[in-house]
């Protein structure tokens, strides 16, 4: 496991603000920047003499449906397709590719699972041994101030009520879904990252290409270089999760998927898994908070979920922050650590042991940000489209259901006679309508205004008041729809307009430093490959992000990937520790210059165990 940090900063753990202090101490911040990005997605190979003799042809394989992503949505779609195939007697070849080395290894969520979609997919899920072991026994919701907490009643009909739901380790649930898919005949290929969307001449999606392997860090071919292969299909379903590397290209391509929706807005969720003292463990207890340590204008909150896994007394805890915050000095990771110091929270962890850490970005735009889902040759599902119910803090059930609806629409299109489709890639013309007629759409419509209401001058208090009046009393039937704030990356203010934040130092017992935390993720990447955190322009991080915003990437990244370090000539430069990356996609979302482009590496990433 390789967790890296430059020697200059490793000697002084926590020296994250070094660049901003140097910026104001007269140190140079602009110089000829060394090459950072060597990835072929940015640096073309066509004119590179090192690649002249390399065979760049790809092998290709054909199937009926290709699914990109082995999470809840992708696996539910694969399972439903094979169920329909067996019921009808029509043979289908369904191939699913997943970048994680094992199904579930990149999955991270709270998580409280609403079993509605699972019940529809497998009515006998309990007999099949689905790993749902902890029914929710009690809900608690608190408003925190710095020293106190105040209870909020969790009434029937409110989104935070969890009666009938289960506290789960979602990675284990996803692993179980993978087993069910393979048993039905789905071809599941873990450890295979999709890197490119392929198109027919008529503009419809043809399939995907997998990532090339065997490229050295300087961008040259290794003796072991192997070209990725192409997977062609009549239907390609995209279920990569939040801000997927292929889905975002679909939004940019000439498919006009976002012409009738608002920009997506995001949050960052950070999670730890703890083994606590048995006397403090209450299986089935679910707690959420809003308020401290965040100010009233910063959207976010925490969760505490007590698991009953038949062994150690485990508690999942986490912190979610909206990525529309404006202070570039703000650190989501350090806010999470500070939250654990609250007098009502810290006692739970004292005497316990932290055994897991991770983070991932979340879709928070809701109904207003749902794009057009179907296009010639494919469709978006789950968090690739943004089907998270933010007030519920849940997206697994909606991801599964939209995967199932996409599968039904794909099966319907595949059953049509040859020649009925206007394009080579089939158009799932019933999918968008199926989703809008489903309980998913009704659920998101009812809560559509809650998150925008938090953006009022009253902050979270205004959002909670809106929830009480318009959701609990009127069930979300108000005749208006509020708008979001705009793109998250555009919300940062210049560093000189914002107050630096003084965070407490970690104590190593309840709160921890970043590198110690990243070590718990098990993340690992081959160091001799081009950094997959690519920059469209290598000069932008220093000349704009550091100069104007104090280098926010060193604060918002929850894995210590980005550092501004002092070069020998006294100038500042950006160092990317790509091997630390836990694939959360936050940098691609929050970068104020939109200069960072996250692409899949040759392999690796976090190795979450039931997170």
Record the SSE blueprint.
Elements: H1 7-10, H2 18-23, E1 60-68, H3 72-88, E2 94-98, E3 112-113, H4 116-121, E4 134-135, E5 138-144, E6 149-151, E7 166-167, H5 170-183, E8 187-190, E9 194-199, E10 205-210, E11 213-215, E12 221-226, E13 230-238, H6 247-252, E14 266-275, E15 285-291, E16 300-306, E17 314-322, H7 332-339, H8 346-349, E18 353-363, E19 374-375, E20 378-380, H9 382-385, H10 396-414, H11 431-436, H12 439-446, H13 450-453, H14 460-473, H15 514-519, E21 533-535, H16 540-549, H17 553-556, E22 562-566, E23 572-576, H18 586-590, E24 596-598
Parallel strand pairs: 1-2, 1-13, 2-8, 5-15, 13-20
Antiparallel strand pairs: 3-7, 4-7, 5-6, 9-10, 10-13, 11-12, 14-17, 14-18, 15-16, 16-17, 19-20, 21-24, 22-23
Helix pairs in contact: 3-5, 3-10
